[in-house]
Amino acid sequence: KPESNKKVIISVKNIEKSFKNGEVITKVLKGVNMNVYEGEFVVLLGESGCGKSTLLNIIGGLDKADAGEFTFMGKDMSHASEDELTAYRRENIGFIFQSYNLMPNLNSKQNLDLIGELIKNPLDSKEALKLVGMEEKGHNYPSQLSGGQQRRVAMAGVLAMKPEVLVLDEPAAGLDPAGRKDMFDMIRKLKMQNQ
Fold first, then answer.
1. What are residue 19's DSSP bridge partners?
2. pTM value?
């Protein structure tokens, strides 16, 4: 139970979301309620197809709920315009997806520099790479990196953003046990850095 004096960063109330495939409508989220408090580390668990990624996409401003209320730091985002959602994502949300979303024609440092051009007050790309143990790989292209190394560069991109909220969708998928431990160690480091 979060401390009562902690600020609510994200709140979802009675969130519903359905998807239509031809004539078939599948209701994925059915009245989900959740608060995320400042400094809190939240894990969503559930079987495949239960709506975890859908909820993360709504919280991350990538999708909108069909019904319900979603607020970020007290601001109603339920009916935000596309421009408002874009600004929300750019200024507040750091994503780590199952795919790493690195530009294949840019090396690691250039991928981070590109992120830095899109946001205010980014962390220096060399410093971000150092924080994830990839300072020696700044000149390597994604195709020259292992999957775990690509994930570290993606994490460095999130560190460079200094986001208010970090959204990770299956961050350890496809990693061996040592890689999973490294990933969660990096997540803990990021959480400690932002407290």
1. 26
2. 0.76
